[in-house]
Amino acid sequence: MTDNVTSNRETMGFQAEVKQLLQLMIHSLYSNREIFLRELISNASDACDKLRFEGLHNSALFENDSELTIHVSYDKEAKTLTISDNGIGMSRDEVINNLGTIAKSGTREFFTQLSGDQQKDASLIGQFGVGFYSAFIVADKVSVLTRRAGEKIDQGVSWESDGGGEFAIEMVERAPRGTAITLHLREGQEDLLNGTKLRTIIHKYSDHIVQPILMNKEEWKDNAQQVLDEEETINQAFALWARPKTEISDDEYKGFYKHVGHDYEDPLAWTHARVEGRQEYTLLLYIPARAPFDLWERDASHGIKLYVRRVFIMDDATQLMPHYLRFVRGVVDTNDLPLNVSREILQESKDIEAIRSGCTKKVIGLLEDMAVKDPEKYTKFWDVFGRVLKEGVGEDFANKDKIAGLMRLASTHTNSPGETVSLADYISRMKEGQDKIYYITADTFNAAKNSPHLEVFRKKDIEVLLLTDHVDEWVVSNLSAFEGKPLVSVAKGGLDLGKLEDEAEKQEQEKDAGAFKELTDKIKASLSERVKEVRVTHRLTDSPACLVADVHDINANLARLLKASGQKAPVSQPILEINPRHPVVLRLQAEENKFDDWASVLFDQALLAEGGQLDDPASFVKRINQLMLEMSSS
Ligand code: ADP
Ligand code: MG
């Protein structure tokens, strides 16, 4: 080494989050140590993909060596493992950024929020995109040598760290293009210095990697394994999705998922198809078993990997999946796009539109199939992704009915709280004469289940769907009917039970409306602007009053949601409905002095019962106390 080389050696500190992560790697992940190899090979493979892609525009980058491979070797004496690739490599700045920080801000935030127990969960690591640091699970020193494709030989970079707070970086001469990562194994990790062991790990985690993973051949000689000069390919090294379905085992599908899905758990299900016709493409799409941590983040990366004729084009091709299927992972490989396709072109491409619609159909088909053939598995899916899928009712007009058919909803007619029904179940149980699907929306399951609006439905044993996800308001505003049956809110408009009410009941209602006209007018006058109308209802059996929204007004739950999300909700006055059989209402009829107080309390309690907030809670409490005192003194 010349002075010149040593003089450019610099020591730098890791970003604080990286230090934290390194601690986690070293202390918590020991039981899952093998994943380090998977991560480093996956990075090497990504580096080869990147070179292949950049090389499409600039073939000089290949430096006359376009056979991209990954090597794994070990040195028993030095107790080192080396993983090298002839991919894109890194410049000095790239090394500092990529191996000194956690680049993705969402990842960083997520990481700092993790509780101690979650941090021990190795399975989350893949989702972080912090795979490189897993090298420190087995190594107490890691050295990286790299040269970016196209750069001169003196532009090599050496990076070294013991996983403490710092790393050293230095410019060096390096002839081979790409990156070599050498792990100096910790004490107790020597069993990894074994060809058979390494081959087993590579098969287990990295068989699906598209580039050949090479190791030197070995043979038994004099009771010891001898490493030969000749190399052999360890993995299958063939795009899994391009192979015929019949030749692929479930384990291979699962292994590939872990690579494309950045997940350590098995997927819940997958669909693999070759589509021929106007567009020709192959898709291999997976439903994960659990939600990625950023499922609800607005600009989280999602989408699938796009290949054109087996050449990797881009990650996270969001155009290939609608937003409500953002949890789907996998690859699409098409013959119809140019290799130099950009994200901008994708946005406008008719071919992509057709592929997206094809992929969407496949995923929906997969879910429909699962719902029928394996309801238990489907329930698992629904618990994790149901709320996301529901967005599709409003987002995807063409598939709206199918998505509605996939919904699983809480209802008054299930036995336990977690249990759900489909709209088809609901319809199959409808009462004779029932022609509508009734639902209620509320903030919580209990608020829905105990709402006064349900009283008459309970009495008549009519099923009502209990919708308590935020997205449900959006669903019902986009879904006016299912299989020809209109969806009707029980908290909106006049109660119209159609044929579910007999003539006698209808006549009684008319009679009551007349008999209570004076009272309802008086209450309206007393409450004035707070209500749009006051009327008699038969929807109540136990409660004295409830609020309903007028047919074209937005209901109270939606108004609250809009307000909570900082949006302006149109102010609409509710309609107060009173129960003509209730003693409190009858008592009110006779009330003279305190009529206004009684009317106010009636309104306020109706508002409370449906989860609303009182404008003036203190006055409500005062009135209640006064009334209680009067009762006890009379
Ligand atoms: P991820 O792969 O999810 O981005 P990693 O921690 O595994 O996260 O790697 C961090 C970054 O380091 C990569 O994104 C890549 O830019 C760079 N990197 C790691 N290994 C290599 C390699 N073998 N060749 C080139 N770049 C690499
Ligand atoms: Mg990685």
TrEMBL record:
Ubl conjugation keyword on record: no
Protein's cellular compartments: Cytoplasm
Region (A): 1-343
Keyword Cytoplasm belongs to the record: yes
Alphabetical list of InterPro entries matching this protein: HATPase_C_sf, HATPase_dom, Heat_shock_protein_90_CS, HSP90_C, Hsp90_fam, Hsp90_N, Ribosomal_Su5_D2-typ_SF
Residue ranges of every copy of the Histidine kinase/HSP90-like ATPase domain listed in the record: 32-189
Chain ranges passing through the membrane: none
PROSITE patterns: HSP90
Region annotation C: where it falls in the sequence: 561-634
Keywords, alphabetical: ATP-binding, Chaperone, Cytoplasm, Nucleotide-binding, Stress response
CDD domains reported for this sequence: HATPase_Hsp90-like
NCBIfam families per record: PRK05218.1
Stated role: Molecular chaperone. Has ATPase activity.
Quaternary data: Homodimer.
PANTHER family (UniProt xref): HEAT SHOCK PROTEIN 90 FAMILY MEMBER (PTHR11528)
Family under the similarity heading: Belongs to the heat shock protein 90 family.
Full protein name: Chaperone protein HtpG
Gene: htpG
